[in-house]
Write a structure and sequence with these properties.
Helices cover 35% and strands 24% of the residues. It is built from eleven helices and 13 strands. The chain is globular and about 55 Å long. The two termini are 21 Å apart.
């Protein structure tokens, strides 16, 4: 691990999370009574930036919010985690993005997003932050803003010599040029299958031979390093750049009593970026991120639930 971790640049979305808790998720056309309601800071990119910031990483966030109370809340939350929010633009004529979230008693969720100001994020926002990219070690991206902005950020990161981490969520087809500009792809099993043209993704007990086929398929699509998350079953690191015998690494799940899984995937992404920026290998970073994401699921909400470095290290030491 290097002594002075590099900067992480996160480009993308900031949302106000409107969350209601229910015993179970409603069926189509059904109305249920809720058991609580909260408005919290969220958005995949803001969550990822806060997750890394709470771990002590040097993080800059690029995106857009409206000139409203939700925008104020989001900026305050990110800044409170040590994130540089000076490149988050205040859009004049559009509201801050919103996510409407339902969480059931098992901690599972369903989410509907209205883009709001996130829909205005454009390549010009990337160009305006060129100096931030020049000092980046990791550029962290997702698909909650337009693909043109995502691709511009990936190219800026690649030109700066940073590791470009693409979280392919919410899933959308991406151009080959974006795949070529990305160094690490982070997907769940369903997203992996979609990206690989409907390929079967092995189950949690599959052997290395089955995962070897998946690794080769990612490489054929221009991605030599990928992490496939498997929910409660951990994750698998597929690294074609690693030495023989280290190209497929199973990351065991961290067992916790989940309260709210909302944003746990973003905690994984932000933590992965933080450890990559600190000089760890992809497998080392994924093992750390697994613990951080599990801890995030033990509390309600998103950003406020993300663990500090000492909490993650304490759980890792205890396991």
């Amino acid at each position: 691990m290097i002594q002075q971790p590099g900067r992480i640049v996160v480009v993308g979305s900031l949302n106000a999370d409107l969350t209601i808790y229910t015993e179970r998720l409603p069926n189509p056309g059904e109305t249920l009574h809720g058991e609580g309601f909260a408005v919290n800071p969220g958005g995949k990119s803001a969550n990822q930036a806060v997750a890394a910031g709470r771990l002590g990483a040097d993080v800059a966030l690029i995106g857009a919010v409206g000139q409203d109370a939700n925008g104020d809340m989001l900026l305050a939350s990110a800044a409170g985690a040590g994130v540089d929010v000076s490149r988050v633009r205040r859009a004049a004529d559009v509201a801050t993005g919103v996510a409407v979230i339902t969480v059931d008693a098992a901690g599972e969720n369903s989410i509907v997003i209205s883009a709001g100001a996130n829909g205005t994020v454009a390549p010009v926002d990337v160009t305006a932050a060129k100096d931030v990219f020049d000092s980046a070690a990791v550029v962290c991206l997702c698909l909650e803003v337009g693909l043109d902005a995502v691709e511009a950020a990936a190219k800026a990161g690649r030109d700066a010599g940073a590791t470009v981490l693409l979280n392919l969520s919410p899933y959308a087809p991406v151009p080959q040029s974006l795949a070529d500009a990305s160094d690490v792809l982070l997907v769940n099993a369903h997203e992996a299958s979609q990206f690989l043209d409907g390929a079967d993704i092995p189950g949690p007990v599959a052997d290395a031979v089955a995962w070897e086929r998946v690794r080769l398929k990612f490489a054929e699509h221009g991605l030599e390093r990928a992490v496939v998350t498997l929910g409660a079953h951990g994750s698998v690191v597929l690294d074609s750049q690693a030495d023989d015998g280290r190209r497929i690494i199973r990351i065991a799940p961290t067992k916790v009593d989940a309260v709210d899984t909302t944003g746990a995937g973003d905690a994984f992404t932000g933590s992965l970026a933080a450890r990559l920026a600190a000089g760890e290998t992809l497998a080392e970073a994924a093992a750390f991120a697994s613990v951080a994401a599990a801890l995030a699921a033990t509390k309600k909400g998103t950003q406020a639930a993300y663990p500090r470095l000492e909490e993650v290290e304490r759980m890792r030491s205890a396991s």
